[in-house]
Amino acid sequence: MTRDKINGRRMVGIFLLGMLLFNFPLLHLFNRPVLFLGMPFLYLYLFTAWSLIIFLIWIFSRSKPDKPFQNHGE
Predict the structure, then answer these.
(1) Tens of pLDDT, residues 7-62
(2) Which residues pair with 39 in a beta bridge?
């Protein structure tokens, strides 16, 4: 499997993770009238999940593509 296919699968996985993190059941769990460091817990969750998605995209987009095949015999 080439690195492009692996990176494509990773990006699809990150997309699905984002869909899970920003969907109703998890958002409802964090929507409580609780303050954490003076910030509503839902806002803290949203910014943390958003930062995690951006960080994962950055990490996986930095991987180098495969080197093209070089034929030394010709």
Answers:
(1) 899 999 999 999 999 999 999 999 999 999 999 999 999 999 999 999 999 999 98
(2) 36
Distance CA(26)–CA(49), nearest Å, equals 11
Residues 6+ apart with CB under 8 A from 36: 44
CA proximity to 48, closest of 24, 23, 22: 22
What is this structure's pTM? 0.79
| CA separation for the pair 21, 18 (Å, rounded) | 5
- Centre a 10 Å sphere on the Cβ of residue 45 and count the other Cβ atoms it contains: 19
Q: Check residue 74 and report its DSSP letter.
A: -
Q: Are 14 and 56 in contact (CB under 8 A)?
A: yes
